[in-house]
Amino acid sequence: MSDIGQVAVITGAGSGIGAAIARLLRARGWIVTSISREPAPDTDMWLVADVADESAVADGIAEIRARFGRIDAAVICAGHYEETPALEISPSAWERMLRVHVGGLAHICAAVLPEMRERGSGRIVGIASERAIGGGSNDAHYAAAKAAALSLLRSIAVEVAPDGVLVNAVAPGPCDTPLLPADSWEREQGFLDSIPAGRIALPGEVAELVRALVEEDLFLCGEVLSVNSGTVI
């Protein structure tokens, strides 16, 4: 722990799950920084960058480390979502989805891991999706990108665990965030009645699980923990 407290970087901390994680960690004494394309008011430092841009991410992490001395935890939450039938997905849509979800994870890990490994401690949490596990209709490129990110994260977890760095993922199901449209079928009562929990998850519930992964000595390695109301079991 640094003299000023533990330092976390959260991508996509401007809204939804990322913002909930930032608020919770900050309330618990963490120094919270963000790399995001949108404002992240519940942070101590916000840097404007697209996680798909490797050099921008590397520069941002270097700036955070220069100011606070270290990074104890990284939460990769920045995302991109759109609905398109599988056979109508354009090459540019495929590229954007993969660059954000797979590239974003790879860029953050490449930037934070060398110092974590040298220090012998650190936590990384990737925010995945139930779609990575169970697939979905009209969002095949999103599901595929999230699944690829999970495989990348698990592979990284195996490589860095001997160095004291624990890497895991949280895979939310439908969650009450701006990413889920107000008219989504996943908000309809018929769908809610069909799932075991009877409701969708709240951002704060996902944030609590992320908090446990970065704060507690759970010694999980490459695990994918689901907060999905029982939609995928």
TrEMBL record:
It holds the Pfam family adh_short_C2. InterPro entries: NAD(P)-bd_dom_sf, Sc_DH/Rdtase_CS, SDR_fam. Gene3D superfamilies: NAD(P)-binding Rossmann-like Domain (3.40.50.720). Transmembrane segments: none annotated. GO terms for biological process: fatty acid elongation. One of its GO terms (molecular function) is oxidoreductase activity, acting on the CH-OH group of donors, NAD or NADP as acceptor. It comes from the Bacteria. SUPFAM superfamilies: NAD(P)-binding Rossmann-fold domains (SSF51735). Belongs to the short-chain dehydrogenases/reductases (SDR) family. This is Oxidoreductase. It comes from Mycolicibacterium diernhoferi.
